[in-house]
C-alpha cells in the first residue's frame, strides 16, 4: 500500500578500487528502507554518478555530476582504499571534490578507509601520498572510520547509518516549524518543569575516613528491655562485621544519582496520538552514567544470612522509558505515548537517573514519530553541577539509619 514519506538522498562517493563497498552501501540503504520506511515515514535514496548523472556538451564532467547529483544529496558516504582517483581542476580527485563540496555545504559526511591487505606491486606511491594528505582533512559534521574486512565495513556502516539518519531528521528545520510540542525535563522529586539549559546540582559525598571504618560489633540490649516492632528482616547468621562499610557504600551510591522524568508539552489546540519518541542522549564529558531505574543496591544487614528483596523493578510498556547505552557518553531512549491532549503535558511513568563525576552538559535530541504526521524533532539540555560534601563514616551511618 502507498504511504507518505520524507526522502533523504545519500551520495556514494569513491574511487574505482572499492566497487564492492559501493554495492554494500546500496544494499544496506535498501535494507534500512525495508525495515524502517513505512513505520517512520522516511525513505533513503542512494545517489551514484553512474545512475543519476547524464552527460552534457561543453561542460566539465565533474561540474555536471556536481550539479545533477552532489548538490542534490543530504549526506555523503565516501570510501577509500589505495587510490584517490583522477585529479580535477579544483581537488585531488573527483571523489575528493564531491566529498569536500558536501562537507563545505555543512551536510553530514561519513568517510571509511579500508585497511585490507593489498599486493605491494599494485600500489602507486603518488596515489598513496595524495590519499594520506586527504585523510588530514576534517569536516564539521564528519565521521571517519577504518575497516579491515568487507563484513566489518557492512556492520559499521549499517549501525552508523541509523545514527546519521536520526541526525538528519533532527537537523531538518522544516519539521520544527509545523509542530507545537516541546520536550522538557522534571526532577523526580519536584513538580516544576526545567527550562532549556537548566542548572541542576548533584551532590557527591566524600567519606573522609573510609579507610578507618571498623568492623561492626553490635551492642546487645538489656535483657529487661522489651523489644517490639514490625519484623522486616529475618536473620539466622552472626553479626556482619562489614555492616558499616556496606552502609557507607550504599549511601554514597544512592546520593550520587539524580532522577528525572521526561515531559512532553503539547501547546497546540489539537491532541496527538500514538507517539513514538526516539531520543539520543549525549554527555559532553563522556563520564556520565544513565540508568532507567533508581539504583537500589543490596540493603546492608547487621547479621549475615539475612533474607532480603534485592534489585529494582523495571517497568515496560507505553509511558515507560526504555534506555540502553550505545557508546561512551551516548545513550538511546525510547518512549511510547498513546495520547497527549491539546494544551496538556504528559510525563513518563518512570524516571531515568543521572550520575556524573564532574560538571557536564546532558543533551537530549528527540525524533518523534506518529502515523498522523511527519516525524518532527525536539531538543532539550541541562547543565549538571557537582557539589562535593565531606562526611565521616559515623555521619553517613547516622544519616542512613535516620
UniProtKB/TrEMBL annotation:
InterPro entries listed in its UniProt record: DUF4062
Pfam families: DUF4062
Record domain DUF4062: where: 9-99
Protein name: DUF4062 domain-containing protein
Amino acid at each position: 500500500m502507498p504511504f507518505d514519506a520524507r526522502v533523504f538522498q545519500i551520495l556514494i562517493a569513491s574511487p574505482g578500487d572499492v566497487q564492492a563497498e559501493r554495492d554494500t552501501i546500496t544494499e544496506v540503504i535498501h535494507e534500512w528502507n525495508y525495515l524502517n520506511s513505512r513505520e517512520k515515514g522516511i525513505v533513503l535514496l542512494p545517489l551514484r554518478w553512474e545512475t543519476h548523472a547524464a552527460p552534457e556538451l561543453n561542460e566539465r564532467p565533474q561540474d555536471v555530476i556536481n550539479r545533477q547529483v552532489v548538490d542534490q544529496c543530504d549526506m555523503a558516504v565516501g570510501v577509500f582504499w589505495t587510490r584517490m582517483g583522477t585529479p580535477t581542476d579544483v581537488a585531488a580527485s573527483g571523489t575528493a571534490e564531491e566529498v569536500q563540496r558536501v562537507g563545505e555545504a555543512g551536510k553530514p559526511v561519513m568517510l571509511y578507509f579500508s585497511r585490507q591487505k593489498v599486493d605491494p606491486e599494485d600500489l602507486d606511491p603518488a596515489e598513496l601520498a595524495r590519499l594520506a594528505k586527504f585523510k588530514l582533512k576534517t569536516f564539521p559534521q564528519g565521521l571517519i572510520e577504518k575497516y579491515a574486512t568487507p563484513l566489518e565495513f557492512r556492520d559499521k556502516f549499517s549501525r552508523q547509518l541509523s545514527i546519521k539518519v536520526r541526525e538528519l531528521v533532527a537537523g531538518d528545520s522544516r519539521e520544527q516549524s509545523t509542530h507545537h510540542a516541546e520536550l522538557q525535563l522534571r526532577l523526580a522529586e519536584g513538580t516544576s518543569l526545567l527550562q532549556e539549559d537548566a542548572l541542576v546540582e548533584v551532590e557527591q559525598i566524600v567519606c573522609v575516613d573510609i579507610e578507618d571504618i571498623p568492623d561492626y560489633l553490635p551492642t546487645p540490649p538489656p535483657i529487661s528491655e522489651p523489644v517490639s516492632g514490625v519484623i522486616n528482616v529475618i536473620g539466622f547468621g552472626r553479626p556482619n562485621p562489614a555492616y558499616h562499610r556496606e552502609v557507607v557504600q550504599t549511601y554514597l551510591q544512592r546520593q550520587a544519582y539524580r532522577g528525572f522524568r521526561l515531559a512532553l508539552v503539547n501547546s497546540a489546540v489539537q491532541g496527538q496520538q500514538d507517539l513514538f519518541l526516539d531520543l539520543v542522549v549525549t554527555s559532553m564529558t563522556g563520564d556520565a552514567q544513565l540508568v532507567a531505574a533508581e539504583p537500589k543496591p543490596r540493603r546492608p544487614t547487621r547479621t549475615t544470612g539475612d533474607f532480603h528483596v534485592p534489585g529494582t523493578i523495571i517497568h515496560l510498556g507505553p509511558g515507560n522509558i526504555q534506555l540502553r547505552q550505545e557508546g561512551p557518553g551516548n545513550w538511546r531512549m525510547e518512549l511510547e505515548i498513546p495520547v497527549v491532549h491539546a494544551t496538556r503535558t504528559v510525563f513518563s511513568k518512570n524516571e531515568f537517573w543521572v550520575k556524573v563525576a564532574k560538571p557536564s552538559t546532558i543533551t537530549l535530541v528527540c525524533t518523534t514519530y506518529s502515523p498522523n504526521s511527519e516525524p518532527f524533532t525536539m531538543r532539550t539540555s541541562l547543565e549538571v553541577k557537582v557539589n562535593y560534601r565531606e562526611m565521616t563514616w559515623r555521619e553517613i551511618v547516622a544519616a542512613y539509619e535516620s
